[in-house]
Amino acid sequence: MTDDELRMQLQQSQQAGCRALMDSYFNYAYAIVFHILHDYAGREDIEECVMDVFLDVLRHFNTEQNGSVKAYVGTTAKHKAIDRCRCICARNRHTLPLEEAQFTEIPDAVQVEETVEHGEQNRILMECIRSLGETDAAIIIQKFYYGRSSIEISAILGLSPPTVRMRCSRAMKRLRKLLSERNITL
Prior knowledge:
9 helices; mainly alpha; rod-shaped
């Protein structure tokens, strides 16, 4: 059914137009609402939210204006689902991060594995840096994490710039050795 035919049915008969609207876009609205609410709500809440979407569309959709009915239903579904999610989270005293309220891709197994592996490597790296001793660890972190020069590091640590460069060079050699023992390369 085209948007024009749907508009005509809504103008002629509210009941027939409502049926045609739901026949055309129920699955679409349900998919949007489910995507946002599935972690926070049960099936009944999701279905109730979908019904609220169609009530809102029927109340506020202007049949005289041109525009995509599907886009209007989709936008209404998204906003209703986010509002419902906020209510549920407030009721359960949870917060809803903005990233979760928007459409995001679900990570695949490879992405999850890479993220875990990267986190584990970072943990091992920090462990090895700390094992270098307080001054050498501070030099490595200041140089490579904060991007500070030998002169800036020398002012922070109270050492001369040549001493900072020498200690950094020696600390990097020890760090490479520690990491290679754990099969990690820089």
